[in-house]
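During the reporting period the student researcher (J.K.) took over the structure-prediction task from the postdoctoral fellow and processed the backlog of single-chain submissions. One of the processed entries is reproduced below for the supervisory committee.
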Amino acid sequence: MFDLKWIRENPDALDRSLARRGAEAASAAILRLDTERRGVQTRLQEMQNRRNAASKEIGKAMGEGRANEAEALKQEVGNLKAAVQEAELAERDLSAAMKALLEELPNILDADIPDGASEDDNTELRCVGALPEFAFPPREHFDIGEALGLMDFEIAGKLSGSRFVVLKGALARMERALSQFMLDVQTTENGYTEVSPPLLVRDDALYGTGQLPKFADDLFRTTQDHWLIPTAEVPLTNMVADQILDEAELPIRLTAHTSCFRAEAGAAGKDTRGMLRQHQFYKVEMVSIVHPDKSDEELERMTGCAEAVLQRLELPYRVVLLCSGDTGFAAAKTHDIEVWLPGQGTYREISSCSNTLDFQARRMKARFRPAGDSKGVAHVHTLNGSGVAVGRALIAVIENYQREDGSIGVPEALRPYMGGLEAIAADA
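J.K. obtained the following structure tokens:
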């Protein structure tokens, strides 16, 4: 939720940021509504003051025998009561309309991100790792997994429909190994505190991180007014909702391995084969709650924490800075990490690390008290990133470590988590 005072003082900055996202200007509509609402609030206050004063005058007029004047005052109070009720209703309607406008506004973009309309306009920051060379045409993960008998989309379809998979044997074990490995990297090496959060949340949690109301169609909702989380970002970030932290508590760094659930409503026809885009998947998420002066620095740190996973797995990847048209609703700046998939012959996103500045904190009412200031408070800055998407990491391992005989090599970093197994074959 935006600060209305900031919009009043910076209407052009709001519209410029919206234009960079390819959205229409909004400041004029907001300011018109704001002016109308403040006018109603002023009239309401004036009528309430006059009603209170007239009520007091009634008793005085009665005591002094001015019956006609007292009756006139009573009539005035009655009329004011009805007018106040009407103005209060108008103010509530205008406030609701203002809230609806503000909560649809995306975050203000950082000035240093490139302009662009789509992922084609993103800026490559760095490439890490040599692309693998094969003496045979590399295959995609689903061809390899199905040939091994360890990846079954047909059974998953019978159980749940499209965009689900059943993993068996060594591939199921590798999926679990990846999760444990990632958590160990983020907790023992990078200073994140592991959390096991709920997978079901209420409206307020999704509103706080920006998924509601705009992206309700991308979510799964239960019949008892809970939502399945699309990412652990939601419960982790909301752990500081409605709180005033001490500055000494910052930074707070949290990580979680959870199932994630997404309707993929806007992805019809995209990645329909394989595991790249599913309704249910696992992810290790990172969330940071930091001092406003530290969020730029924290974004670089978080990106490095995600990169460390791919480096240890010896997977080639690149880091890109998202352009204005590809940056998410709640983000001011985002680094995507894209892993190389030989079967597709391209890089695909495996982690997205974003600085939301105070955008989520304002919606969640997450604040801190600066050191030495007993009265003042400020909003924290929040960041989130994948550390990394487990299913896509599994895909990347399968494709980058594939062998001509159909087996899959096990990255050295994963072998301790897989009982020393060095390769996955059909009988694994």
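The committee noted the following: The chain has two domains: 4-102, 119-424.
J.K. will present the remaining backlog at the next meeting.
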